[in-house]
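Agenda item 2: S-adenosylmethionine complex prediction
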Amino acid sequence: MTDGFGRNVNYLRMSVTELCNLRCRYCMPAEGVCKKEHAEMLTEEEMITAVEAAASLGITKLRITGGEPLVKKNILSICRRAAQVAGIRELALTTNGVLLPQFARPLREAGVERVNISLDTLNPEKYSYITRIGTLSDALAGIQAALDAGFQKVKINAVLIGGFNDDEILPLALLTKQYPVDVRFIELMPMYDSGDFDQSAYIPGSVVLERLPEAVPVSGDGGVAKRYRLPDAMGCIGLINPVSAQFCGTCSRIRLTADGKLKPCLHSPEEYPIKGLSFPEMRAQMERAILWKPKWHGNLNAAHRSRAGRDMNRIGG
Ligand code: SAM
Ligand code: SF4
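Presented output:
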């Protein structure tokens, strides 16, 4: 469906939970999030109805996210049913990877075609620091499990954090030579409360290119990522620069939070509730959300934090 500014909105990111088995410092408070009343969250039925409503409005691409989607107990059923919704041509999932050794094959069998795995560092101590409770070897085992399970595409996402992992740009990028994976560097966004990292830790995506002089541009559709390749690499390097190079003008996304709020713009406060609605009501609400998708979310920087009113784990990254 075309929004009020002529953009084709064909991509839904659906969060299935706010909960997570990690506590990344830029995403979640140390104590995690309060478990909400069951009644406040979307049921599996409502999630599938929302996907059907979205597909009826021209959404063709669905990404399941969270929180951590693999801690959701009915995640396989949600994926299997979502994959079967007529009109959904691409089903992807974003995960921290820790539970992929157990879930990679069943997810693939359920119809998930692509996985993005978050990995900000290759250093075990730094991994435990950034995730507060995670173990690097678990995430690496998850990446291997994803490769073994035969997904169409495996991408690794690293948030660029000055003073934390800017010294690991080359080692992370070299994963594209060791494995058939894309590695994408994402600029740190000033969310509602990005915890321990304020915007002094922000570094622009252009730093990646300074550290990778051998990388050459790759043409073709990388979505919001600008793509590059190292010599003889199997995968691409992607730069996702939501802060230094906002992509509002070509944004094709709408988000659905686990508590049933449609967010037509990641960094804007507008939310359209769909919890408890029937298919026609949900479809009408989604149509409104797309039609009134904001043109631009405004500047993002230390002085202008995201107006999302939620952190990423409560939106769906
Ligand atoms: N738990 C899953 C994971 O970590 O991949 C999915 C949800 S997580 C919220 C989705 C993505 O959002 C992750 O790649 C994470 O690094 C990113 N993210 C969270 N907070 C962010 C921030 N302040 N700036 C940039 N990216 C952020
Ligand atoms: Fe959990 Fe993902 Fe947020 Fe890390 S980035 S705390 S893994 S939801």
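Discussion summary: The pocket of iron/sulfur cluster (ligand 2) is lined by residues 20, 22-24, 27-28, 66-68, 96, 118, 312-313 (CB under 6 Å).
Owner for follow-up: CH.
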